[in-house]
Amino acid sequence: MTDKAGSPVGFLPYGRQTIEDDDIAAVVAALRSDYLTTGPAVDGFEAALCAETGALHAVACANGTAALHMAALALDLGPGDWIVVPTVTFLATANAARYVGAEVVFADVDPDSGLMRAADLEAALGRIPAGGTAKAVFNVHLGGHVGDVEGIHALARRHGLTVVDDASHALGTRYRDPANGWNRVGEGAHADMTTFSFHPVKTVTMGEGGAVTTNDAGLAKRLRLARSHGMTRDPLDFQQADLALAADGSPNPWYYEMAAPGFNYRATDIQCALGSSQLVKLRRFVDRRQALTDAYDRKLANLLPMVRPVSRRETQEAGLHLYPVLIDFAALGFDRAALMHRLRARGIGTQVHYIPVHLQPYYRQRYGAPDLPGALGYYQRCLSLPLYAGMEEADVERVTTALAESLSAG
Length: 410
Ligand SMILES: *Cc1c(COP(=O)(O)O)cnc(C)c1O
Prior knowledge:
The protein has helices spanning about 20-30, 40-55, 65-75, 90-100, 120-125, 150-160, 215-225, 240-245, 270-280, 280-300, 330, 335-345, 360-365, 375-380, 395-410, and strands spanning about 55-60, 80-85, 105, 135-140, 160-165, 175, 180-185, 195, 210-215, 230, 255-260, 305-310, 315, 325, 380-385. By secondary structure, the chain is α/β, with parallel strands linked by helices. Bound molecules: pyridoxal-5'-phosphate.
């Protein structure tokens, strides 16, 4: 027997969307409207995302990968430029640099949090070959947690680097810094651009969707060009007066211009209608994820030190995407695959976030395999347990009981 999502009844995946009747109604209304692609729902979603994050500009797009690619395009990154990326992330963070011909230098991470530290950024910069220029750092808020974003931002500025945050996991996260008080992820206190994903496992979803936020009007304009073919209809941008202007000097009504090719990375009105409906629920979803996390922390306390939650920055209220634990498999006597199989047999889905990207064949062939011991230490121990807004505390109890049984089954 399967439920509506196609999972065995009672099966708890590591993450899944929460779609409610008003979300469905919002999509139906978009389908009945005059616009399917770029219409008022796109503007509405972008305005809602600005309101939520506090950013001045939000540019919605097709998915989180497109958001990262658009950020690389907006910065005009290309061959000879090097981008620092923490190796514990999803493939797309690093691939964005390669899409534009820039090179990736992988940074190590804290073995207990999976987050890049300022010292890791500094060490990565030191590994850029002579002749290469460090241009940007694409930082990652793994699981929804921010690390030392202030230290990373200050170091990046000293080296003339632009900071892009891949906040695919961190919509809704707030953190307190001694200088400014509370900051929201996406607000741009310590980043020039912030990218988001609205894939169904993320905290809110558009089916597929993404966005970039920034406070820089110039970057926002370049992001919009990258999103839609490099086309502009703004007369102030026109370079070719002979083609652009009518006899009376006014712009020709059909005219558009392209200075450099962009992509079709637009989000549709259908996606944005769903996104806006979901954004209204963000606080509720974040609170729910926090309550479930607290329940996990309490119930897992008696599995210490064999199983422990990842270490977290205290001065934050995180919009949590994942509930990763660190498990001492070396002491356990059986491996992670065996544990995942045992949990699956008990109806519990788990996942590993992530295989360090520098270990992928493509990147090994290109850059060799740098020694990144923090990342390996994290990777060898991490396992993400189910966490999503539709879970109940009883589900947490089920997971922790199954985990305790699976660990002691020998
Ligand atoms: C999900 C994710 C992406 C990619 O987002 P898509 O919307 O799936 O393209 C990029 N980076 C991280 C860290 C992610 O988790």
